[in-house]
């Protein structure tokens, strides 16, 4: 008998508007029909499942099939999102009769095509659709949702994922203020997408070219709003000031970031030319993520050449920020700061400026896997503190938010204008801080010392288990739940909290929290975007000199890392 998957794939071919993916899938169908076992297995990998739509939208490998990112899947997603927005408008008395959506895209392969398909389908469904004119950073799209007061925003991006991936992020306007979607909205949209997929070929979906193309005024407005984070907007950078290297990591950050830095009176960086312009092949990096080994090698080389004081890196869609500083003990001569180190410095800056402006209320927030040192800063300034689940869809919704961050290089420093992590605005605040202290002869390394002396010594580490079989992650989590460890790295475990059922402050999530007798904390959770089990380690030390406390933290981290590697090994 012929495997039914061949008929499924052939039907997909008939509706696929993309000549490239249609040709590749047709060849696979032909090979499988003639008994090619490898081709048949490939078809099963493409069609046995469907790329799930969730709170992170869609994200996956480019290619034909329901388990890949392609024009068929994106068209179904656009129609499903349109149906959801129309249903919400109809169910909300007094709402605007015509929902609206602004659509952005980055420089990855097919991002512009997916964005245009989305605009045509949204317009065909009767929505006001506004397409950003050029490849843009994700924060610009998040800003545009609020600036234009649209019902929703859609960003076509896979952020820092591998080159072969693309994705689809959805934001909501109105009462949500331009934050990413959360449950149950994701499930409601997913049901609409499934309904569209079951109704017939995407060629039957109504389309229209009656959509708007936004002017560059959107980017100009974002730049103006972001420049306000600096204290010297409109001024020339001081002569002999901070010497900075910047990399866009083959993404879309440079054109916008360079204009922002100049307008904010910050040093115009030495840009890594090989990575300055968008390139969907990401030819100089194995993995376009500043956290990955080797990703910042070219910026280290340029920094050594020009004698830089600081390296600033954005990921490809510029919603994350990485910082590196000179370090003679590092092999490259520079050390990338952890997300927690940058997060605490920015949190200190935000709290100091907020209270200096006379504000007596407000909240600093971070995710449950980020450094508890932010609470120490909030307490020092008499501000509130909140922990959220991972993801800025949660951080951005914290009431009276002043500042929020997550350890994965994400920072929200201007919640009044952007309700998502923003690597460009975070760079402005960090460069403003670094430039101010550079003028006083204080380095970023010395600022880290001052932060530790003022708020306490906190240190963090990570252990990851990357898998090819996702069932391994479930198996490890089940094992840890069934038999929690009594000790980790020789330190007693005081309490194990299973967040699967949520708490008074945090919704249910597949996370285990281990609280240790020495005040250390361990969080274990599956990654939301990669096939990884991630373990987050946070330690602190209160006794001795600054150097002694740091040494104690390092020793504890080393022991905990070894202990957790043993516990999650398969």
UniProtKB/TrEMBL annotation:
Descriptive protein name: Phosphomannomutase
Domain Alpha-D-phosphohexomutase C-terminal: from-to ranges: 499-542
Domain of life per record: Bacteria
Coiled coil residues, start to end: none
Family named by the database record: Belongs to the phosphohexose mutase family.
Cofactor(s), by name: Mg(2+)
CDD domains (UniProt xref): PGM2 (cd05799)
Biological source species: Klugiella xanthotipulae
Record domain Alpha-D-phosphohexomutase alpha/beta/alpha: where: 51-195, 240-324, 339-454
Keywords: Isomerase, Magnesium, Metal-binding, Phosphoprotein
Membrane spanning residue stretches: none
GO biological process assignments: carbohydrate metabolic process; purine ribonucleoside salvage
Single GO MF descriptor: magnesium ion binding
